[in-house]
Automatic annotation (TrEMBL):
Record keywords: Cytoplasm, Hydrolase, Protease, Serine protease
Stated name of the protein: ATP-dependent Clp protease proteolytic subunit
Family: Belongs to the peptidase S14 family.
Originating species: Novosphingobium guangzhouense
Biased composition (Low complexity): 261-277
GO biological process: protein quality control for misfolded or incompletely synthesized proteins
Spans annotated as Disordered: 258-281
């Protein structure tokens, strides 16, 4: 036991790369599914305790809004909570996988029980974070998605071999954590990761990734939050689409930035493309570009 925790023994820390030149993030279809199926899901109660950490955003620093869930911010929240149990409410399509590994490590070091509540979706990097919970609750209509570490790379066959070799220990470490949490064989977890597996609430419990269902009356759809989530996600989807077409992330951001505004780290929402969901002209232009790239 660690600090009196009665639940499962926490697994070892996950490796985090010292060299972050390789970006690992959720693929575009995952982020689109989050925007379609889980955006705007929030806790039903307006009031919540001061020991609650909410993760209703992408994992990692979000260049477009100045938000995002980072290990640095989670560490600060844990320090503020202090020597008490913690509740983490999560609804995220993922994002930076390596930042997710770091957040997992930060949470697992907390000396008191952590209750993880999957309100809508815990996909990709967010699913790794969910495994830090000593107790994991999931909505009946919620999903947990696991997959291999996903990157965009360019180069010749030697470069791709190097990238594959670089990613191997991270996939292995995640499979180990999923197995330790669920009680499943590591080989089975690796197989599910390789095939990008979506686990509904009941299936996540059946396979040991979660412990119990989250009562439906603890969740609601916040329409204002949903509109903001969807609008911001369209900008992120545009960035990923441009990256998949061969641009660097810097080039993709510059292209989107040229449409309107000058986004930066904590910008004014009025200057951030689509951040408040109130720029139909920009959203129409981006949707047209997305359709062109997908056709």
């Amino acid at each position: 036991m660690i600090g009196g925790i009665q639940a499962r023994q926490r697994p070892n820390a996950l490796p985090v790369p010292a060299d972050r030149r390789v970006s690992a993030f959720s693929p575009l279809p995952v982020m689109e599914r989050w925007g379609e199926d889980a955006a705007g899901l929030r806790p039903a109660a307006l009031e919540q305790g001061d020991n609650v950490i909410t993760m209703f955003d992408v994992i990692g620093e979000d260049w477009w809004s100045g938000g995002g869930i980072t290990a640095k911010r989670v560490s600060a929240q844990l320090r503020a909570i202090g020597d008490r149990p913690v509740e983490v409410q999560i609804n995220s399509g993922g994002g930076d996988m390596f930042e997710g590994l770091a957040i997992y490590n930060v949470l697992r070091e907390h000396p008191h029980p952590i209750t993880m509540k999957i309100m809508g979706m815990a996909a990709s990097a967010a699913s790794v974070i969910a495994m830090a919970g000593d107790t994991v609750q999931i909505g009946a209509a919620s999903f947990l998605m696991i997959h291999n570490c996903w990157v965009v790379a360019a180069g010749n066959q030697n470069d791709f071999r190097e990238v594959a070799e670089f990613l191997t220990p991270f996939d292995q470490a995640m499979a180990d954590v999923y197995a330790a949490r669920s009680g499943q064989d590591v080989a089975d977890c690796a197989k599910w990761m390789a095939s990008e597996t979506w686990l509904s609430g009941s299936l996540a419990i059946e396979r040991g990734f979660a412990d119990e269902l989250l009562p439906a009356d603890q969740m609601k759809v916040d329409e204002n939050a949903k509109a903001a989530d969807v609008a911001a996600n369209e900008v992120r989807a545009m960035e990923l689409t441009l990256v998949n077409s061969g641009m660097t992330r810097a080039q993709a951001r510059a292209r989107i930035k040229s449409l309107k505004g000058t986004p930066g780290a904590a910008p004014d929402p009025a200057d951030t493309p689509g951040a408040d969901g109130n720029d139909p002209e920009l959203m129409t232009a981006m949707q047209a570009l997305l359709d062109d790239f997908r056709s």
